[in-house]
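Hey L., structure's done. Input below.
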Amino acid sequence: MDSDLAESLQALKAVLEKRRITAQFGKADPAVVESLRKSFRVPARYRTFLLEADPIKVEAATPVERVRLFPSSEIAREQVGFGLNEDGTPRAINKDGEWRKSWVVIAQSSLLGDPYFLDVAKLDAEGDCAIYTAMSGAGRWEPRLCGSTFAQFLRILAAGMEVAQGFGEAMMDDEDEAAFREAFGHKIKTIDAAALRAGHWT
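Output:
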């Protein structure tokens, strides 16, 4: 595991422990990961993450969002609800606003049901790619950037939980939510300015 990914993963694990949120990481079956590579072109950095820290039970919780990372055993099945067959082929010809073959769902909002997905059409030199989300049930998929790389996405999830700790467990009113989003935005700016500009988190 490269240093960027290792640091991002450690930040996520540390804040989960600090917040006393139960989480379970394991090691994915190499055969399953290879199948994901073949079917969905899952990139190298994400494959490394699954092999070394498969998110068996991991949910990043803040007052405004809960992101559940899918374990390797669920990823192929999760694609089926988004216009793909289990072998990664599209069920229909893609039109503007429809699900793309290059989008691979790796997590979901436990609050809203919206998917978080890799866009494997644009890999960087580290074998990583951007993470997006889109509103489900809107009639068309309009992706919004959530992390310029998977490593940065993990770092943003960790930062959100770190900021959330200062707001306690009580229900938030509009003023508290605005204060949370502003504080979270300052953190994201130092991690991934492009993700901050996209506006999903704030």
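The chain has one domain: 3-198. The helical segments are 3-18, 30-40, 44-53, 72-79, 150-165, 174-191, 193-198.

-- N.
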